[in-house]
Amino acid sequence: MGDLKAKKSSASESCKDVPSLLTSFVDTFVDFTVSGHFLLPENPIPLAQNYTDATTTPPPPPPLQTFYPPQDRLIAIGDVHGDLDKTKQSLRLANLIDQSDKWVGGSATVVQVGDVLDRGGDEIRILYFLEKLRREAARCGGRLITMHGNHEIMNVEGDFRYVTREGLDEFLNWADWYRVGSRMKALCKGLENPRDPFEGLPLGFKNVKKEFTEGFRARIAALRPDGPIAGRFLSKNVTVLVVGDSVFVHGGLLAKHVSYGLEKMNEEVRDWVHGVKGRLAPEYCRGANSVVWLRKFSDEFADRCDCSALQHVLQTIPGAKRMIMGHTIQQFGINGACDETAIRIDVGMSKGCGDGLPEVLEINGNSSLRILTSNPLYQSKYKSPAAQAGSSREGVGFLEQGPRQVQVKA
Fold this sequence. Notes:
- By secondary structure, this protein is α/β, with parallel strands linked by helices.
- The protein folds into 2 domains: 18-50 and 162-223, no CATH class; 67-158 and 233-388, Metallo-dependent phosphatases (Purple Acid Phosphatase, chain A, domain 2), CATH 3.60.21.
- The chain is 33% helix and 11% strand.
- The protein has 12 helices and 11 strands.
- It has helices at residues 2-15, 18-35, 84-93, 123-139, 150-157, 165-185, 213-223, 228-232, 255-260, 262-273, 307-315, 385-388, and strands at residues 67-68, 73-77, 109-112, 143-146, 240-243, 246-249, 322-325, 335-337, 342-344, 359-364, 368-373.
- The strands form 2 sheets. The protein has a 6-stranded mixed β-sheet.
- α2 (18-35) packs antiparallel against α6 and α6 (165-185) packs across α7.
């Protein structure tokens, strides 16, 4: 009799784990169906984070890191705008992934400066792919850091001006499988009340054609503050980053942004994405002079850049020598302005935004910069402005000028 009670007690204890195990299984199943990747939970997710009947408060997310020491090898990748093929091409240019899309970059650090979303149809697949690589890189001593662009901010706010039909279809497919997963979880006692990301959303939208309504609802559900995709992927993005002597930001930084606090901005935007700061992004992420929209240092005509303002900003960040930005497509590829202190890396590579040839920036240590390009006409033909002028000064390895892609405003 005692043995029977012991067995029942053991079985009861084992069954306590069924809800969390089922949750992990279903989430992994949905992940693979949507993206083709198995992403096992990094940490067990407390039920309180996923179900409305929970009474305990989930632990706060770990703080985002804003400052990193110099890296032996640092790769910067510009805007990819929903183009998974070009994203992979960029990574292969720098020998970061192999032909099987596995991380082979060793201890390299990669920074993607934002604008994964909009203008293409692979947005969710890119988010999953970058998350897969982030985990693989970490196991090899490397690091993949993703940033907010203006299009991430816009989408979390519900501004879908640059969404494509393919983009709506991808989110609609995600929503279908997400709902399947929710129904599977509801079959287990203890998981009766899965959180519905569509709660409170209208069934229709003014000026949106009926055929696109469900796609809009799916996109809002996924990306609004505390939505499943926003909370899982975009909340890991930083808004500003300093690696060694390089400052990374999507649009640009002004002195007032630095005074406000770089770490403070990262934390506040992360909290907003998690749904604790209202519907609209913080003010420094909105408007022409915001950190994700600014173009003062990225105009295609270098003489239009506000070099004095840039120099002032860099002087307020200890050790900073350059600012690396995306956001504004450069007609002749990656280049520098303001005596090579403004490095512009958005080459308009996405098929939905210029269809340019991928290029990435490589920084070795704190001083050696070069451009890696997929254009066979320019490969291994680096010539800096200083070299063209006959100076021995080292700088960004500019490619010899030539026809590339048509300028398109992002």
